[in-house]
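Protein modeling request. Please complete all fields; requests missing the sequence field cannot be processed.
Requester role: graduate student
Desired output: 3D structure, C-alpha cell encoding
Chains: 1
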Amino acid sequence: MKIYIRIALIFLSLFFLNSSVYALDEIVLNTESSEQETEYIPEEIEDNLSELEVINGQAKTQKIHDIFDTTVSDNEHVQYLLDNYLTKKLDKGILDDIGIWGLWRGGLSETFTRHDNHTKMNYDVLETRLHGTFKDKKTSFVITTRYVPQHEFKFMQNLFSDVYIKHRFDKHTTLTIGNTRTHTGEEGASSELLIPFYSRSQISQQYGNIRKLGVRLSGDYSFADYDIALNSSGTYFTSFFPGAEFCGWINFKPLAKTKGKYGILKIGGGLTAGRRHFNYNVVGGYVSYRYKKFKADFEIANGDGSNGRVGATNVHSRGYYTTLYYDLTKKIQLLARFDSFTPDCHDSHHQIREYSAGINYFIKGQALKIMLNYVFREDSIAGNSNRIMIGTQIVL
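Delivered output (396 residues):
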C-alpha cells in the first residue's frame, strides 16, 4: 500500500510543477524540529540507522531511474510509465490483477485577434483509472474518474467517463458493455492522449469525442477492423435513456500482408444515427497512409444533426481535414493540418478554416510529451485570429 501512496505523491508533484512552486516556506518550516523534541539514540544504533537510510535511499533512487529508463517502443500507443509498480498480482479472489493509472494533460494558449488578445490555462484531462483482469484472463474492467470541472454538468455527471467491462472471445473479437467513447469518426473515437495536435479537428469536436452507455462489438483482423455499438443517446449521465443510437465503423487495410514494404494504408467509413428529441445522423469517411517517417490523414464528415461532445443539435453541418506528419527523429515529430468546417449548411457564407503547424517532443513516447502548436483561424463571421498553444502530457 505504501508504494501506491508514494506514486500518488509523485503524480501530484508533477501536476503542481506545471504552474508554480506551492507552499515552499511551509515545507521548509515543517522539516525543522526543536531541541526539546529530539530523542536520544545510542551511537551504535544511530550508525545502523544511517546505514539503513543509505540503503533505502539508494533503492528509492534506483526505482526512479528504472521508471525513467523505461524503453518506449513507439509513439503510436500509450505506455503507462508506472504500470509495473501500480499493478498488483492477486493470488486470491476473482481478480487476477488490479492496478491504477494517473493521467494529466493541460497547457497554455495565447489567442490574438485584430482587437484583442487573451491567455488561457487549459486542464483538459486530469484522471485516475482503476483497471483489473479477472481470473479467466479474457475479461477485464476499467473505471475512470476525472477531476476537470464542467460548469454545465453536476459533479457526479462529470465524475465518471470510461466505466465498462470487456470480454475478449479470441484474439480478434471483443465485447464491451458500459460507458465508452463512441466511434463517430476516426479521430473522434481516439483518446486525447493519441491525437497529433493539442486540439481536435472541427468535425471531431462537433460529432465525436463523446462517451455513451451501451453494448459494442469490435473486431481486428489482418485486412479489416470494425466497431459496432448500440447505445443510449444520453450523455454524461444527464438522463437514463432519451433515445437509442446506432454507431458503426469499418476500416480496410489492403496492404496488411506486405509487411510495410509499400507502407500502411487504411480506408474506412461509418454511420452514427439515433434520436434525442429529434433524429440525427452523421456519415464519415477516412483515409490514412504511412510510409516510414511520413504519414498523412484525411477525414470527411456530414452531419444531418449530431449528438457529439458539443451537445445534441439538429443543424445540418459538414467538414473535413487533412493532417501531415513527419518524424524528424524518434522523439521529434513535425505536423501540418488544414481544417475546414461549415457550421450550418443553410448558411453557406459562414465558413471556418484553420491552418495549423506543430511540433511534438516525445520525452517518453506518449507518456511524457510536450506539444507546441500554432493555428491561424479564418472565420467569415467572427473574424480571423492567431493562437499559440503549449501543452504537456503526463501518463503515470
